[in-house]
Amino acid sequence: MGFNSKKNQIMKNKNRPLSPHLQIYKPQITSILSISHRFTGVILYLSTFLVSLWLFCTAFNSNLKIILNNFLFSHLGQVVLFFISLSFTYHLLNGLRHIIWDFGYGFNIKNVYLTGFVIIFLTLTINIYIWFF
Amino acid sequence: MFNFLRKFFSFGFSKDGLSHWIWQRISALLMILIFVVIVFSFQKLPIAFTKDFNSWIKTPINLILFIIFFLVVVHHSTLGMLNIFEDYVQSKKRKKIISTLLKMISFLLIFISVISAWNIYSKIV
């Protein structure tokens, strides 16, 4: 009994349950927006590598800079930049929403849904404006 | 009080959850503020980005602004990534290795970017 409970304790510590069970969590606007915030955050972290590389090329290697600029102005590069700007806009707007929540406003379910839809609308509108007008 | 200050000045990298939370918010607000200033100062320039970035960064205040912005961006995103690993990586050992690697990569990113920005600033055209 004693051994088993000790073993269970060790198992518990090593394999503690993790919080966001994405596979079993029912997709709703709230959960989708929450995981999108994290996902866009990861995209933005990766895009700092691109910014850093671009700065390095601009400063130290003009040949590499030309190659990088050619890539960024190609169709694939434009798609990459489009997703970065989409992620940036979404993360910024949803981040503002988080800060408003931190001050204690907009917590009821009606407001959470409303601000969620507003953010999706604004993200799409801003990006369509940036890229197509 | 001393304990609180010690946690606060770990810049969110200590094991204390409150310090992490506060610094994530501080860096987010700082980023928004600097981003707005950068957007407004960029509007004064014509549209060709690559060429204009070089002339934009040659002003000392813009260089400082850019470096602070990049520092805050990397700080905020490193804290965010650490949070993700905290939630999704089970093994404590693996979590420690990944977080150390992440901090090293972030430091390298800052180092490369600051050196590059300084080089562009000090280059004579």
Short description:
With 133 residues, chain A is mainly α.
Keywords:
heterodimer, A: 133 residues, mainly alpha, 3 helical TM bundles of succinate and fumarate reductases, 82% helix, B: 125 residues, 5 helices, 0% strand, elongated
What does this structure look like?
The complex is a heterodimer of chains A (133) and B (125). With 133 residues, chain A is mainly alpha-helical. Chain A has a single domain (31-132), classed as 3 helical TM bundles of succinate and fumarate reductases. Chain A has helices at 2-14, 29-60, 62-73, 75-102, 109-132. Helices cover 81% and strands 0% of the residues of chain B. The termini of chain B are far apart. At the A-B interface, helix 2 and helix 4 of A face helix 2, helix 3, helix 4 and helix 5 of B.
Write the layout of secondary structure elements.
The complex is a heterodimer of chains A (133) and B (125).
Chain A: H1 2-14, H2 29-60, H3 62-73, H4 75-102, H5 109-132
Chain B: H1 2-8, H2 17-42, H3 49-56, H4 60-88, H5 92-122
Helix pairs in contact in B: 2-4, 4-5
Figure out the total of helices of chain A: 5
Order of helices and strands of chain A: HHHHH
Number of domains of chain A: 1
Which two chains form the greatest contact, residue counts included?
Answer: A-B, 28 and 30 residues
Q: Regions of chain B with pLDDT < 50 over 5+ consecutive residues?
A: none
Q: Give the DSSP E fraction of chain A (strand runs of 2 or more residues).
A: under 5%
What is the SS-derived class of chain B?
mainly alpha
Low-confidence stretches of chain A: none
What is the tally of helical segments of chain B?
5
CATH class of chain A: Mainly Alpha
> What's the CATH topology label of chain B?
3 helical TM bundles of succinate and fumarate reductases
Radius of gyration of chain A: 21 Å
Here the CATH topology of chain A equals 3 helical TM bundles of succinate and fumarate reductases
Strand content of chain B is under 5%
Task: Give the strand tally of chain B.
Answer: 0
Q: Tell me the number of strands of chain A.
A: 0
Cα-based radius of gyration of chain B, to the nearest Å = 17 Å
CATH secondary-structure class of chain B: Mainly Alpha
